[in-house]
Amino acid sequence: MRMWQPTLECMPLPQRRALQTQRLRDIVRRVYECVPFYRARLDAAGLRPDDIRSLDDLPRIPFTVKDDFRQNYPFGLLAVPRRDVVRLHASSGTTGRATVVGYTRADLEIWADVVARFLVMAGVSEDSVCQVAFGYGLFTGGFGLHYGIERIGALVVPAASGHTRRHIQLMKDFGSTHLICTPSYAVHIAETARDMGVDLQRDTRLRVACVGGEPWSEQMRLQLRALHGLEGFDNYGLSELIGPGVSGESPQCRGMHIAEDHFYPEIIDPVTGEPLPYGARGELVLTSLTRQAQPVLRYRTRDITALDPEPCPCGRTHVRMARVTGRSDDMLIIRGVNIFPTQIEHAFLEMQGTSPNYQIIVDRQGALDTLEVKIEVTETMLSDEMKNLHRMELELQKRLSEALSIHPKITLVEPGALPRSEGKALRVIDRRPK
Ligand SMILES: [Zn+2]
Q: 277 CA to middle of ligand 1, Å?
């Protein structure tokens, strides 16, 4: 199994700890000196850079949250002069100001390498043809993946998101081997191919989907394989830290290796903020150890996962993070029960005849919250008798009630009935009065 940077990815633990400690101390000193926001934060906590001597001191540092980015819009968090910044990316900013992230030349070099790491894990080589179906622009997905693919020397097809039917034509004509997008868009592209009469296995060379940008379930991975012959590989990242490239997985790994030489992970209790031990599920907090333009200390990602430090069969020594089960922002509280959309997805996809196209509708009748799950059935299921569909609804109702401890209404709909997204899927419609 090839690795992109074997010496770094397989660094023995004591050596890595020493490297992380040195980098943490350097970065704390640098933000204290160069970023007024961090100087004020550390001063308020009664901390001087010299107080942070080891990784154990990290929990003493206050968290950084998304709102800190908004408050310092656009350049308040830069730790270098503006002239050293060579690229900007920004989040959509649907609510309030956008989150702006700057990169120096050195940051872009590191970004390309960490993206190359997870692509190589998914089998990308000089012989691969990688079709990028992420948006290019201020969003980090398109450009982030693009330069990682070029770094490896694979052929990049920067098709971007949208024009789904054209994607199918391009992958036939160019012999694309790897599709790069969100998991929901991978499903949409695969279904569109089928609708166009294109059999991905027979008519194209596409065998792998490198997916990231939104949570998905293990069941969805199994369906991609069973229905479309695509092997799905998970990767994780977020623009506040760098973009895609924080972690990724190989077929031998159970979980995604975090590029720990660049991003130091912690897990905290999302309610109390207290650090949690390895293995415990909680919110991921990341500290950038090498970013120049915009380092960030203890960033609360809102993503729920767990860390596994055990040795991995692939030989990499970096800690692995479990599949993200959801964002704490996406967590639905329905009649006092905490529910993540991925839990619902996992529970119903276990049943034959369901597709990963679904919508969750939360509403309130009187004082009671209601939950409805609309699920598209597969073509084969639709051709069966209506009697079977009703039986299927009852069975799904039973399974979801057991999995979630509340009783949802299940509505099965025809294939293609629910809206599709070319980026991140809109899974939840919450109609409850605020
Ligand atoms: Zn591994």
A: 20
